[in-house]
Amino acid sequence: MRVRTRGYWLYLIPSILLFLAVIVVPFLMNVGASFTRWSGVGTPRWIGFDNYTRLLTDERFWESFQHNVGLIVAMAVVPTMIGLVLAASLFDYIGKRFGTRTASALRAMYYLPQVLPVAVAGVVWGWMLHPSYGAVNQIFGLDLDWLGDPDLALATVMGVMVWFQLGYPVVIFMAGLQRVDPSYYEAAEIDGASWWRKFWHITIPQIRPEIFVVLLTCTIAALKVFGPIFVLTRGGPGNATMVPSYFSYLNFFQKSNVGYGSAIATVLALIIVVVTFLFLRVQERES
Amino acid sequence: MVRLRGAAVLAAAALALSACGSGGDSGTPSPAGTEPRVLKLWHYETADSAMGKAWAEAIKKFEASHPNVTVKFEEKGFEQIQKTASMVLNSDEAPDIMEYNKGNATAGLLSKQGLLADLSEEAAKRGWDKLLPGGLQTTAKYDDRGVMGSGKWFGVPNYGEFVMVYYNKDLFEKHKVEVPATFEEFTAALDTFVKAGVTPIANAGAEYPAQQIFYQLALTKAQKPWLEAFQSYKGKVDFRGPEFTYGADTFADWVKKGYIAKNSAGLKAEDMGVAFMNGKFPIMISGSWWYGRFASEIKNFEWGHFLFPGATMSPGSSGNLWVVPEKSENKDLAYDFIDITMSKEIQNLLGNSGGVPVAADPAAITDAKSKELIESFNKLTSADGLAFYPDWPAPGYYDVMVAGVQELINGSKTSAEVLDGLAGPYEDNLADLGN
């Protein structure tokens, strides 16, 4: 038995080499760069933990993490909640009343923003939210500077991200619902359970693994969000929508401060690893 | 009297241009052997801009005079080159010649990193040093710390640019506003528009325009030593001093008074330009890079320009630079190409397309609008009034400036707090200088 297992190790070599080349080595190089003062060219100068101690007192960095909390709500929590209700409605009501084709068409429509390149979506939202000629102000008769007002900008970006993310949980949850044993619902219906009680006591517990996957992947996406911020606000106005990945990018490419940018990226990567680990632990315990 | 003064300005412009143009055609490009070769060229000028038209013609001229050489041109984006230049130039993928942004934080940084070829010898041999007046050479030379103004030649600019006040003549006429000659007349004109319910100045806070207005206001109180301290680190800059304080206070005041829209913090430069072109604002304070586009796209109203009243200095400088990467294997071809962009034929084309040439033949500039533009530029340079741009002193300062001025527009911070925010990264860079 031991001999046979040893033989399989050969098949792991390509994956291990790929993992080393694509993940481990670049990550270690990034960690190495974070201990240096380096402009990206020439010889890096070793400065120990200076970049990290600087991070600890950098208000802009911590402020950017606070914005991340908002984006986790917008990209993970809210789409998961709305996505659950939508998926269950499409599955239970629309699918049964109007046919599965209608439900599938609606599911595809919710998913459309996920297919759009983020740059395209960002530019179009930029037009719609334009304070002078934007459709949003025109339709609602408002005069708001959605992306230019520091009190509104983060909430506006959050709103756009809810729209952007919503299709993903809907698709995953609808796939999850396919595998739920219909006899649970039939039994509940015989007992006279309302839609809400079935949703609460059957749907949610049954697709809990999917909910975990969606929450985990969306939280990671929120922590490393870059594209929408780049296209919509570039971290502004002021620093009202600054996030760590954009802050890291600014240091890498705008300030040629590769060492500090690497330290930000390292801390961000570690936080993502910790969050993932915690999620998986909780999921393991639940299952 | 006015006609006499006009004639004098024209004569000065002509003299400046003819002085500039004396050596443009002197260096005949060498055919550089007979072996097939490729010159890899990158620039980021759009095809319909003055520079885009001139460089396209330069490529044709170069290929005609170098029959064995093919020019492999790649159009890049400004940001694309800006963000990746040092890494690209440090790799084997570097072009042989590239357009690059000028200033300490850009070309200066690359020169300090040893990524750019020293062009001093070529500049002297081919006469580029004589074609460019002193003020325009500032951005071509960098010292060992990457600070502009002295040291070796690391780039060659062949056009100029400056910030001016564009105005909608029809709206000025409608509201009976005269072209202002003084700062007081300018603010009076702004008041007239506000009273008529018109926001006078088109603005964009998410990109460079707003910070240039703020800087222009600071420049109305600034003298040369202050400028040299700020841009070339030749002295200490007090961010709470009278220049920046006036700039920040006045900018915030202009927003309060309605000269600048309160909802302009999130807008981009393109929004501003398009709004002006659509006749929504009577005034736009921005650079000569809009000139050619306005000339070809504004059809519904008459427009003109004037230098910012009450200031002897305005944001402006040489145009972007041709730089030759140290790793280029075709440096000789790159130098020949630069020479061609300095030739009268190309410079005249640049001038007649709405650009500001540095070595054109004055008699060959036949377009009336182009003549007006060149006259203003000559007026500014003859007063040594090119004050560069506010984001030049430190790498990454552009975003710092954007954030600061957005806070002024929104009133989310006081002028003093904004100025402290600008001072921090500037001081950090000073501490890093030469490292």
Automatic annotation (TrEMBL), chain A:
User: What is the native source organism of this protein?
Assistant: Nonomuraea rubra
Q: How does it sit in the membrane?
A: Multi-pass membrane protein
Enumerate the spans annotated as ABC transmembrane type-1 domain: 65-279
- Which protein family is named in the record? Belongs to the binding-protein-dependent transport system permease family.
* Location in or out of the cell: Cell membrane
Q: Name one GO cellular component term.
A: plasma membrane
Which BP terms does GO give this entry?
transmembrane transport
Could you tell me the superkingdom of the organism this chain comes from? Bacteria
Q: What is this protein called?
A: ABC-type sugar transport system permease subunit
Return the InterPro entries for the record: ABC_transporter_permease, MetI-like, MetI-like_sf
Tell me which CDD domains the record gives: TM_PBP2
Question: What UniProt keywords apply to this chain's record, in alphabetical order?
Answer: Cell membrane, Membrane, Sugar transport, Transmembrane, Transmembrane helix, Transport
From TrEMBL, chain B:
A Pfam family (short name) is SBP_bac_1
The answer to whether UniProt assigns keyword Ribosomal protein to this entry is no
SUPFAM superfamilies linked: Periplasmic binding protein-like II (SSF53850)
Extent of the signal sequence: 1-21
InterPro entries named among the record's database cross-references: Bact_solute-bd_prot1, SBP
Q: Which domain of life is it from?
A: Bacteria
Source organism of this protein record: Nonomuraea rubra
Name-wise, this protein is Raffinose/stachyose/melibiose transport system substrate-binding protein
Q: Which UniProt keywords apply?
A: Signal
